[in-house]
Design a protein that fits this description.
Elements: E1 7-12, E2 15-20, H1 21-25, H2 30-33, H3 41-47, E3 50-52, E4 57-60, H4 64-76, H5 87-97, H6 106-140, H7 144-157, H8 163-185, H9 191-223, H10 227-232, H11 234-256, H12 263-274, H13 288-299, H14 301-328, H15 341-352, H16 365-416
Parallel strand pairs: 1-4
Antiparallel strand pairs: 1-2, 3-4
Length: about 425
């Protein structure tokens, strides 16, 4: 460095550190070591925020406590996160001073990777949505049609976006509840007797509910930005699966008649009628708990696959051993409940999940010992991935609750305006 004194002072957020110029030259932090090669004050100000020539003091408007932990890395060679500080904020400080995630200790590096992965998963969709909103606003050039379509889209897609959206969501929930009550009541033994007296009322209510769901789905499809993305969304597919059976059943009834001789058509109608139970999943649009469950399953699919693999491996091992001990060793007096490995696998599932079946139990001593091992192994194997799923569920719940609170604040401002 061609200017200044022999001692350099780094002022980071009010905390001062003094170093000889020779130490600055080979400093482990790239931003600090760049000061040695600066030939003018202009180059110095490109590295730091301010510079005092008289005291040879360099000012950095950064987090002082984070820099203190970074200095511990310079001194001892170990870099860890600052307690009670966001991992991403500390990582930004690291990048500013010229460090990378590989400089972190393994435990902290794993925390950073998990946090970055969660942040990308949590907010990528929201950021894309905000970018789409900005692009839509820029391309519309103030046209009222684009603003009207955007308002309609938010009303139908985001139940907490406005007062009209909340009213629309409440009406939709009422129709779902009415439809489910009718579907459940239709399976009661006394329903057939009462159906002859109120068959028209039943059909009218059912047609009104289906008409509402159909109109809602069509409007949401029309006002959506990307039609292909709309069709690929899971909730929209569920809506289609819940609506389509009604029109298929009506068409088949018209073609074959109420007292059709085609028994297979009657079975098909009953199956299609029961498919309307998917309407219950429509409540996920309006209730935070169901949204949390769906988001948790989406983000924990690796843990769910791991759980299924554990169960399948245990089924293969304990099922084969149970069939051998209960039936394979003595074919004459063997337990017929374990005559095959698939039958034994059923016993393994109900044992590992601690459900149990009084009629499906081992009779021999060796089989009972194996049953005890199966139950204990099931408790251990099922508990391992459930811990990760639980933490993800809590995280998803707090995230969705935060988004809901933010939408509520926007709704309150809109109502006051």
């Amino acid at each position: 460095m061609k200017f200044g004194k022999s001692v350099c002072i780094l002022n980071v957020g009010g905390t001062k550190y003094a170093f000889p110029k020779d130490v600055i030259k080979d400093f482990p932090l790239r931003r600090v070591s760049r000061l040695h090669s600066c030939a003018s004050e202009r180059e110095v100000l490109e590295v730091c925020d301010d510079y005092d020539r008289e005291r040879n003091e360099f000012f950095f408007d950064r987090h002082s406590e984070a820099f203190g932990f970074i200095m511990l890395y310079v001194k001892y060679g170990k870099l860890r996160f600052v307690p009670h500080m966001c991992e991403l904020s500390f990582y930004n400080e690291m990048i500013y001073w010229g460090l990378e995630s590989s400089h972190l200790e393994f435990c902290c590096q794993r925390r950073l990777d998990d946090r970055m992965s969660d942040t990308y998963t949590h907010f990528t969709e929201e950021h894309h949505r905000a970018a789409d909103d900005s692009r839509t606003d820029a391309s519309s050039n103030g046209k009222r049609d684009s603003k009207w379509l955007e308002r309609m889209r938010r009303t139908f897609e985001e139940p907490t976006s406005s007062l009209a959206a909340q009213i629309l969501a409440s009406v939709s929930v009422i129709f779902v509840i009415v439809s489910m009550v009718i579907l459940c009541a239709s399976t009661l033994p006394d329903w057939k007797t009462a159906e002859s007296n109120m068959v028209e009322e039943h059909r009218i209510i059912e047609a009104v509910c289906i008409g509402w769901f159909t109109a809602e789905c069509i409007v949401r499809f029309i006002v959506s930005r990307d039609k292909c993305e709309f069709v690929r969304r899971p909730l929209n597919i569920i809506d289609l699966l819940a609506i389509t059976p009604y029109y298929i059943s009506v068409t088949m009834t018209v073609l074959t008649g109420e007292n059709s001789q085609l028994q297979r058509a009657g079975v098909t109608l009953r199956v299609l009628r029961m498919m309307r139970i998917f309407w219950v999943i429509k409540l996920a649009r309006h209730f935070l708990g169901l949204q949390t469950l769906g988001l948790t399953l989406k983000r924990c699919y690796r843990e769910m696959v791991m759980l299924l693999v554990f169960i399948c491996v245990a089924m293969a091992i304990f099922g084969a051993l149970a069939q051998l001990l209960e039936h394979g060793l003595d074919l004459e007096s063997g337990n017929e409940e374990y005559a095959s490995i698939p039958a034994a696998c059923w016993w393994v599932i109900i044992s590992m999940t601690t459900v149990g079946c009084r009629r499906h139990v081992p009779h021999h001593c060796a089989g009972r010992v194996l049953g005890g091992l199966c139950v204990v192994s099931g408790i251990v194997l099922l508990a391992l991935p459930i811990t990760f799923i639980y933490h993800s569920f809590v995280q998803c719940y707090h995230e969705l609750k935060f988004r809901s609170a933010r939408c509520t604040r926007s709704l309150s401002a809109e109502f006051l305006n």
